[in-house]
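Schema walkthrough. Field components (list of strings):
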Amino acid sequence: MSIPQLETKRLRLRGFVAADIDAIASIYADPEVARFITMDGVPQSRLNAWKSMTNMMGHWALRGFGMWAVELKATQELIGFMGPHFPETWPGQEIGWAVARAHWGRGYATEGVRASLDYAFQTLRWPKVIHIINPANTRSISVAEKIGSTKQDVWTMGERELLIYGQSNPSA
Ligand SMILES: CC(C)(COP(=O)(O)OP(=O)(O)OC[C@H]1O[C@@H](n2cnc3c(N)ncnc32)[C@H](O)[C@@H]1OP(=O)(O)O)[C@@H](O)C(=O)NCCC(=O)NCCS
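Field assembly_structure (string):
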């Protein structure tokens, strides 16, 4: 399928290509990132990073939407991934995000997540979005709050108690 691209002031959100594996493997190998985006909370092998990347592309094929690879327009460097995400068993339609640690603290996550949220509300016409966040993940809570989401619920996944942030579509 053809995956739509989004552009913000500094970012391009696009489908993944096989050559993204180096950047994706390095994001999944970072304990500070893996802690909050993997099932077991530990750094992942290159093979598991590949599986995650193919999972994100497979999500586009099965659902018609999914996470984008995020690159800096200025350099084409891949700095993370984000976007709509709704796997089986999930408690709601989610906008998720992750940025490589070297690029934290520059507002890239919030910039790309705002564009993802507009896409979910205006193009996908979701009535509501959620974000599933570990309570210790203060940076993510801050991103959720900056885009206007508030704490709605808690969700237990395995042994972990997670927060559900979210907001409703103002045009629905
Ligand atoms: C969650 C995550 C994406 C947040 O990244 P982040 O860089 O802190 O978030 P933002 O893009 O909103 O950047 C905010 C920071 O950029 C600063 N900033 C600098 N230039 C900026 C600009 N032009 N515009 C906006 N903010 C800017 C802000 O002041 C803020 O600084 P702070 O570090 O004092 O908070 C990142 O920590 C991450 O990937 N974590 C691991 C994966 C993860 O947890 N994923 C989510 C699971 S729920």
